[in-house]
Amino acid sequence: MFKVGIFVPYARNETTLAATQFADWLVRSGIQVVMLSPSKPGKGVHEHWDKRVIYRKPSHSENKTKLFEWAFNCTQICWFEPDEWSFRMSKVVCADSRHKFTKHYFFPSRCTAKKDSKKIKEFLDLVDEVICLNRSMFDWLGEFYPSHTLSAPRSVINICSPATPVQSRYGPKTLGKVKLLVVVTKSAVYDVGIGLLDVFDYLLLSHNNLEITVLLQTSWPSYFRQKLSSINKLHGDRLHVVTSPDYYDYPKYTFENDWVYLCSTRHDYGSLISVLAGTGTPLICHTLPPVLDILGGLLSNGQACKLIDTGVFDTNTCPIADVDVDDVGERLDEIIGSPSVILQQSQIESFMQQRKSARLFDRFIDTNFISTESKA
User: Fold this and answer.
1) Which carries the bigger pLDDT value, residue 303 or residue 233?
2) pLDDT mean over 269-274
3) Hey, is 83 helix, strand or coil?
């Protein structure tokens, strides 16, 4: 039986979300997965892995014991954090012979590179293969860390949620109403600003049949909360606010709405995009990498994924966009006021794209984690 070890600092962030999605794909293929965290694990990421992630405690002796138990008998190990000490310790118990060999994969992150570029550069030469979970990451890695003769081979696969819908949705959730879910990340509070609340007020005044649910990844500053409270009093139960729900509850809120606007200007792996797209609900996103990679198949006719034009952004680390809230308001106003047939077409195309992405990712898992081992 195949056994894959995953090394990730387990917390409520996009890196851990990507690692748990990847773990779910492996489990779906009948592979045993063990997850190790070098820091105290957080909660609210995944119902299964929250309870099963191994915590490598600070004690030096226990450090090695936990690490050895985790790495022992693994056929592959996936590194979502470059940790050279843990890598070298794992090699002590990993298989390393002509007949049985543990393969090490590294999943690079722009945010990790921002913290310690030297660490990521050295780690790229230690592993057996580098896997980029979106095309933008692959291009960025080639630009800032060019491959050389001794470099590990690099491959790319756009991340996809393992929770693929069984059938397409068709039409609005509630007849005569339009339900919009706005997912606001922590960085959007500072990148987009308080003007986003004026957009909510404008939309609710312009569309009597509109209901907005604002999903906040973290609690907002006090002045944001005060203004949102005043808007809530004006519009009553047409505006709902959900603060810091667990990641595994996101699909529930997504499925209850007709459109999902992801108010985020800093993506890394794109794992949050894939979670929201996993229910087949049409997304509204900013034109930032890796949105165009993960949802690229949805853009052939411009229906299944709606885009908001965004200004120049920083590509050195996590993309930071120049967002004009007036553009956001105009685009959302246009989408909400569009005929229901546009929503229906978007739902069908979103569903078809999710099925296509799932088949590609399933094939990738089979090729890189099952077929290669079978041949060996």
Assistant:
1) 233
2) 91
3) coil
- 163 forms beta bridges with none
- Give the class (CATH, top level) of 178-356: alpha beta
Q: In degrees rounded to 5, what are phi and psi of residue 256?
A: -80, -5
Task: Report d(CA 298, CA 282) in Å as an integer.
Answer: 10
Give the sign of the dihedral formed by CA 4, CA 5, CA 9, CA 10.
positive
Q: Give the pLDDT confidence of 205-223 residue by residue, as tens digits.
A: 999 999 999 999 988 888 8
Class of domain 3-156: alpha beta
Backbone phi and psi for residue 101, each to the nearest 5 degrees, phi listed first: -140, 130
Cα-based distances in Å from 249 to 69, 74, 116, 217, 241: 32, 31, 33, 12, 14
Q: What is the DSSP string of 283-311?
A: EEEES-TTHHHHTGGGGSSS-SEEEE---
* Crossing angle of the two packed helices 117-124 and 84-93, in degrees rounded to 10: 30
Return the amino acid letter for 313: F
Q: Quote the pTM value.
A: 0.90
- Dihedral of CA 7/39/42/133: which sign? negative
Alpha-carbon distance 104 to 375, whole Å? 17
Listed in sequence order, the residues at least 6 apart from 59 whose beta carbon sits closer than 8 Å to its beta carbon are none
Domain ranges (residues) in the chain: 3-156, 178-356
Q: Check whether the bond before 290 is cis (ω within 30° of 0).
A: yes
- DSSP for 107-152? ---HHHHHH-HHHHHHHHTTSSEEEESSHHHHHHHHHHS---TTSP
- Enumerate the β-bridge partners of residue 79: 7, 106
3-state secondary structure of 28: helix
